[in-house]
Amino acid sequence: MGERPIGSVLYMSATAFDVSAVRARFSALDRELAFFDGPGGTQVPDEVIEAIAGYLRGSNANTGGPFETSVHTDALIANARLAAGGFLGCGPEEAVFGANMTTLNFALSRAAARELSAGDEIVVTRLDHDANISPWLELAQDLGLVVRFADVQDDCTLDLDDLQAQLSKRTRVVAFPWASNAVGTLVDVARVAELAHEAGALAWVDAVHYAPHGPIDVAAVGADVLICSPYKFFGPHLGLAFASAELLERWRPYKVRPASNEPLGHRYETGTLPYELLAGFVAAVDYVGSVGYDAIAAHERSLGEQFLAGLPDRCRLYGLATMEGRVPTFAFTVEGRSPRQVTEHLGQRGIAVWDGNYYALEIMRRLGLDEGAVRVGIVHYNTADEVDRLLAELETL
User: Fold this and answer.
1) CA distances from 346 to 67, 307, 351, 397 (A)
2) pTM (whole model) above 0.85
3) Residue 223, CA atoms < 13 Å, CB-side half-sphere
4) How many angstroms separate the CA atoms of 60 and 71, rounded?
5) Confidence band, pLDDT 50/70/90 cuts, at residue 338
6) Residue 290 in contact with residue 21, Cβ under 8 Å?
7) Beta strands in the chain (DSSP E)
8) Distance (Å, rounded) from C-alpha 251 to C-alpha 267?
């Protein structure tokens, strides 16, 4: 993807990928446990840990003071906004930090709701994590809104025809994921945003599950609001959002009166930010830039193909059976075993995977999975040997 500025660093495409060199940057990976739990939160490289500790050791202070540590904190916040702008493809003033994606989504949707009226409509999808559904359902209860659900095809891809059929002159927001956190399906973000805008609605994107796997450019895809979580892309527990400058300026935020209105994104950051985590976030963005999404995607695709090719017959996969149109996150069940039995078996053998619904209630209901499913999430620090170990253990079941 060439070079792309992120604050003061260069966002480089890598021409080669050395997974051993990557793993050497993660002390957390120096153990027998194979981490296929990335969809719930990735491990962090040592430079992220060191950035957090370094801030606490040398610059820990609140903002606005005329002394060294406070001046350093002000500079860190400015640098974090630059890093966020580069990572998301937006202006630094359009970045908003918060506790996590869910908290940010409730806050931003409440600000947006000051412009909504009874009878206005919100379209969500059955691919969404509930953090991009429940905020709208709660507003519907409060304000008399209508929430419509766009369905999915049998292969767990979004049904764009059904989504288009849900749109009307009363549609105000179309909320949808860039990638499903449950079944790994990718969504054509630009097309959905185009449909939303044709209806006069906002395109409201959950990019939490996509961010570890590919580059984000909010301008290129036409997103009006986009929210993600740095702890899903090798950073600390934190939330990050983009909203267009026009929206941030137009909406009236929920904030305390003395808090500054500048930069625009700060209007929506309630209370004191976790400055040490902002230091970790900048280091995480630098880390991703140093590896490069081209290399990440190629390595993950190879591992995903290896997993799909070796999945035992007694495992039923839900979603796309190839790596086309998906990220390497796989939901499946094992004949004769509950999802929890499978994850316990794997956990006892040093393999970390998830079971349950992963807060993706709608797709689980759509698939009839009352107990949820087993979820394997591959990221770029996984290895072919780890995938072989996983497949071998699944075969023993």
Assistant:
1) 52, 15, 5, 10
2) yes
3) 27
4) 10
5) very high
6) no
7) 4-6, 9-11, 34-35, 95-98, 121-125, 146-150, 171-177, 202-206, 225-228, 239-243, 315-318, 329-334, 351-352, 354-356, 373-377
8) 10
